[in-house]
Amino acid sequence: MEEPSARGIAAAVGRLVNQCKIKPGDRLPTVRSVAVGLRVSPTTVSHAWRSLARAGLVTTRGRSGTFVRGEVHASPAARMLRVFGNPAGLSLDLSSGIPDAALLPDWGPSLARAGEQRFASHYGDVPVLPALEEILRDRWPFRPERLTVLDGALDALDRVAAITVQFGDRVLVENPCFPPMLDILQERGAQPVPVELDDDGPSPEAVRRALDANPTVFLLQPRAHNPAGVSLSDVRARQLAEVLAGTSVVVVEDDHAGDISSAPLVSLGRHLPGQVVHIRSFAKSHGPDLRLAAVGGPSWAIDAIDQRRLLGPGWSSRLLQAVLVDLLTDAAPTAEVRAARDVYARRRRRVVDLLAERGVHTTGQDGINLWVAVSHEQSALVVLAADGIGAAPGAPFEVAPLRDDHLRVTVGLVPEEDAARVADALALAANPSGRPPLADRRRGYR
Fold first, then answer.
1. Do domains 6-68 and 105-330 have the same CATH topology?
2. Which parts of the sequence belong to the HTH gntR-type domain (predicted)?
3. Which residues, other chains included, contact 422 with Cβ-Cβ below 8 Å and sequence gap of 6+?
4. Over the stretch 227-239, which tens digit does the pLDDT of each residue have?
């Protein structure tokens, strides 16, 4: 050990792991015993163990202790990669959760107009174009102290987690939820605490019970929930705000669907502006390759994000920000996005209605995805694949095991002419025996 600091201790342990003198599966000594042996404070050792966990070298198992990871080089995006594991050759891949490229607005004119501005950006520039910030503030669901723009919703979630989630923290997460959220929490060494959903959003009673775990953050999707299709109601937002008022829990809202969502945007920030960090993505509405999401909330959070980003990319492309300004203000792309929202809503309703006729009930009312209860996940995927249809397995979306197996199906990619075929295949996949589904599957959140 070169120095008796957290960094020195972590570096020494890291070298021992890399040299195989400490092997995968080995239990590290307790914090107290190391502190006594090295004559340092337990806090110093705790910081060292936390650094090792962030580097992916060790993992904590609660009271059992801290262990060297058996798969040091395992992918940090394990759940996310499982969602996109469909075999090639499918005629209709409904596993991706992405928008229909044919329904995205035409970027051509906007790119041409933005290109005329000839940006020569540098690190000292403001992170958000003034014209874009004005638009964002006008559309924000509450008055944020600060706004910034990042490289998509996942980049935003990752950067917000970096400043709000510490190793060992407990984080409230909707069950089911978007798999990369769980990957990010695992990478941070945090413990997700599942919160049940119903038709109006997260259960206030479940959140109240979960507060006993002393969580630091609550991750939620306010509308077009991926995968459950749930949107937060005004009443539910007030109820959740009442439960969280007076706590130090930071609420992180991921509005990933944005302008293609049929539901109005409801935010806890209207009630708890000092506790809410809101993320607004433009990937599904205006194009994934824009790589842009806006983040707004308390100054301490947004300032920390912008300052840390200076050591990396520095800023999000101001050229693309200018393209987004044009897309949000020009009549033609605005009309195209509005039309896309209506098409997605029709496609969803059509498949939901056809499934209901076949005895298959789904959750939620909004978004491009359906959460479908099935008898057996793997068997259902095989049945669909036999018909050339791909879907995402439900297990990666689960914070804790749900009562039924599920599939996530991106019905926003199902054209009218394929709706009946998809409904038939899903009905067979959900109930291969042909028996009527259980009545309690009508509320398939649990």
1. no
2. 3-71
3. 92, 94, 351, 354, 389, 409, 411, 414
4. 999 999 999 999 9
